[in-house]
Amino acid sequence: MFSSASQDPENTYYQTTQYESVEWLNDLMSKMWPFISKAVERICRETVEPAVEASLPKALHSFKFRKVDLGRKPLRVEAVELVSKNEKSVCLTLDLVYDGDSGM
């Protein structure tokens, strides 16, 4: 749901109704999920693996993820609340649910 914290009549961009469905955002997340999963895999392999390896004792010479996969079930947005806004920024609070099938 989208909650408009401001009742400023000049601000029609954020005002719709008090609450609005965010299913369109979940549809978008579903479409983007495979790409997000690949990006997380790349970050784990290019950033996390080397950082962990660098901190390992000499006796342990290697650290690798066997699998990095966020799964097929995407993160869901349950609610969105507009906390504050100004000319340069918007602050939102998101209620997120991840009941996924990830594997690492």
UniProtKB/TrEMBL annotation:
GO cellular component: membrane
Domain of life of the native organism: Eukaryota
One Pfam match: SMP_LBD
GO biological process: lipid transport
Ranges of residues in domain SMP-LTD: 18-104
Record has Phosphoprotein as a keyword: no
Residue ranges crossing the lipid bilayer per the database entry: none
Subcellular location: Membrane
Keywords: Calcium, Lipid transport, Lipid-binding, Membrane, Metal-binding, Repeat, Transmembrane, Transmembrane helix, Transport
Alphabetized InterPro entries for the sequence: Extended_Synaptotagmin, SMP_LBD, Synaptotagmin_SMP
Name by which UniProt lists this protein: SMP-LTD domain-containing protein
Organism, as annotated: Cymbomonas tetramitiformis
Taxonomic classification: Eukaryota, Viridiplantae, Chlorophyta, Pyramimonadophyceae, Pyramimonadales
